[in-house]
Amino acid sequence: MKRVTFANTEGTAKEVNIKISFGYLLFGPIYLLAKGMIFRGILFTLLYTVVLWYGLFDLIHPLLAGHVPGMFIDWMLHVKDFYWILVGVLAVVHVLMVFMAPRALVKKLFKKGYVPYCEIDTQMLIKGNLA
Questions:
Q1: Phi then psi for 69, rounded to 5 degrees?
Q2: HSE, side-chain direction, 13 A CA sphere, residue 40
Q3: What's residue 10's pLDDT?
Q4: What count of other Cβ atoms lies within 10 Å of the Cβ of residue 49?
Q5: pLDDT higher for 69 or 94?
Q6: Predicted structure pTM score
Q7: What is the radius of gyration, based on Cα positions, of the chain?
Q8: What are phi and psi of 15, to 5 degrees?
Q9: Cα–Cα–Cα angle for 40, 46, 49, nearest 5°?
Q10: Could you give the CA distance from residue 110 to residue 131 in angstroms, rounded to a whole number?
Q11: Residues 85/6, Cβ–Cβ less than 8 Å
Q12: Helices (H), the chain
């Protein structure tokens, strides 16, 4: 596990894992929201919600039948046939984000004015193609 320490001019230091995000692996988009990446967190929360909501379509179909236009329900019936493909795509996106979340966090820290604490941290960022 490779961790890099960042510091700003005020003396605040933050330590970041640069290879894999165990927080995103366990908590998904909630991790992004907790780290302050609001746009990405909301985007991925919506993605996860929509994909998993289609799996519950058989349970909510009777509730929607009288309140939602028939065109929307017909479209959802066609998408329901591809539910496991959508779950597979979501799983691939989740795994990719486990590796991409640390990169986004490093970029966010650079924008906030944080710099690597010492030369070893700088070399680790260069080696990981993050600097």
A1: -55, 145
A2: 18
A3: 86
A4: 11
A5: 94
A6: 0.70
A7: 20
A8: -110, 130
A9: 135
A10: 9
A11: no
A12: 22-27, 29-34, 38-55, 57-64, 70-80, 83-111, 119-127
